[in-house]
Amino acid sequence: MAQDIYAIARERMVREQIEARGIKNARVLAAMRKIPRHLFVDEALWPQAYNDYPLPIGEGQTISQPYIVALMTSFLELEGTEKVLEIGTGSGYQTAILAELAQRVFTIERSKTLMKRAKTTLDRLGYFNVAYKVGDGTVGWPEMAPFQAIVVTAAAPDVPFPYIEQLDKGGRLVIPVGDRLSQMLYKITKLTNGTLQKESLCGCRFVPLVGAYGWPE
Ligand code: SAM
H helices within the chain, ranges in order? Predict the structure, then answer.
């Protein structure tokens, strides 16, 4: 019965917050309809899990607004064959979406506490195509490169060059870049001839990406 309440809330979230704002990618919409977002936050926050805003997940971090997760994921243009690098595992919710839509997900989180919780949730839900690393995600995951898609869910002062190096030809990088208070979301495509194409998507506000090629502690 309680599960039904969340299924209804999830359907409403997709219709009113995501489809209504113009996101049409059928695979992204299906993943967001399927994944029980409430299981990625504390039980006290379950009644708010499908609302149109970010929520605290501990360690001063947040699970992103559902719409921004859908938007970033749709710009990755995943077809199911990709190796994806995700920076900022957080609650693991976006990781689950990526695991539904790509072949393999490599996710990096600097907080050991958050990573442990995210992995427990993702294991319980049966997402076994995910590899986890605790550490500074600004250096990427060079041993596993190249990636056909890279998504960064914390804001950098500039695009860390390891992401450009580790992006496959034809690959897409989605990343917020700006100061600590507000940023622009960018999509950077590495064309098959190796040149980069940069598109500004929208203004946004993320927690800082802290690390060697991000913000200082
Ligand atoms: N996508 C996540 C979700 O669905 O819950 C939300 C991510 S939260 C907005 C950003 C995360 O990036 C935080 O958990 C933070 O600890 C992490 N982070 C910040 N700097 C990082 C770094 N250099 N490497 C890895 N993770 C980092």
Answer: 2-13, 26-34, 66-76, 93-101, 112-124, 161-166
